[in-house]
Design a protein that fits this description.
29% of the residues lie in helices and 33% in strands. It is α/β, with parallel strands linked by helices. It has a single domain, classed as 3-Layer(aba) Sandwich (Rossmann fold). The strands form four sheets. Strands 1, 4, 5, 8, 9, 10, 11 and 12 form an eight-stranded mixed β-sheet that branches. The protein has a two-stranded antiparallel sheet with strand order 2-3. Strand 11, helix 5 and strand 12 form a beta-alpha-beta unit.
Length: 215
């Protein structure tokens, strides 16, 4: 299942516009805030597809029957670019455990690169709901490398990918390589990739915009 927020008018579209805008991008604090708000909204929307149970809650004046999340997901983010989105998801799923994993491109030439995963800190993952956040899905290779590393520690009960902007190439590629019940929640889908595998129009390098240019 692919849910593209740009197909539906909402305030999230304004936040997507700002993270794309090269003038607004000069304000790193606002860029991070918008990434947080995008993820928080996505977390709320995707929560509607999760399982709930009824529980009676005692109030000062009586008893109320409430629907509570049956199972907390594990919030997984790809360092470093995903940290701001992770903060937004944590505000929605405030009781969830977190996992952090690194993935980066090592360029062999201007157009060829390999994905390296070097760090993982995670709670128990087997048979859990995984929500993996990464601002950009360009080729999908980083997400696939992350998934293949994570699944060494167990298989997900459900896999949910959260991304601000994705390429249509990445979505189609990952749909064929990730579990068939994977859900994709994306702010917008762009159709073009450059020869260097950057999304067009995209927004540039999310990690650099949020945390400064890396050397």
């Amino acid at each position: 299942m692919v849910y593209n927020f740009s197909d539906h008018a909402s305030i999230l579209g304004s936040y997507i516009a700002e993270i794309r805008d090269e003038q607004v991008q000069k304000d790193a604090l606002r860029f991070r805030l918008n990434m947080e708000r995008i993820a928080e909204i996505m977390g709320y929307e995707l929560s509607k597809n999760l399982a709930y149970s009824s529980k009676e809650i005692i109030t000062p004046l009586g008893i109320s029957s409430c629907k509570l999340l049956l199972e907390q997901p594990v919030l997984i983010t790809i360092l470093r670019a995903g940290l701001a989105m992770h903060q937004g998801l944590m505000r929605t799923f405030d009781k969830a455990d977190s996992a952090f994993i690194s993935a980066y491109r090592k360029h062999l030439s201007p157009e060829d690169f390999e994905i390296f995963v070097e760090y993982l800190a995670a709670p128990p993952l087997d048979n859990k709901i995984w929500i993996i956040s990464d601002p950009m899905l360009a080729t999908g290779n980083s997400m696939l490398a992350v998934y293949n590393t994570l699944k060494i520690n167990g298989a997900p009960k459900k896999l949910i990918i959260v991304s601000a902007i994705a390429s249509s190439f990445a979505i189609e590629s990952l749909k064929n390589q990730l579990p068939p019940n994977t859900e994709f929640w994306v702010g917008a889908i762009d159709d073009e990739l450059t020869a260097q595998s950057y999304i067009v129009p995209g927004l540039g390098d999310a990690g650099d915009l949020a945390f400064g240019i890396k050397v």
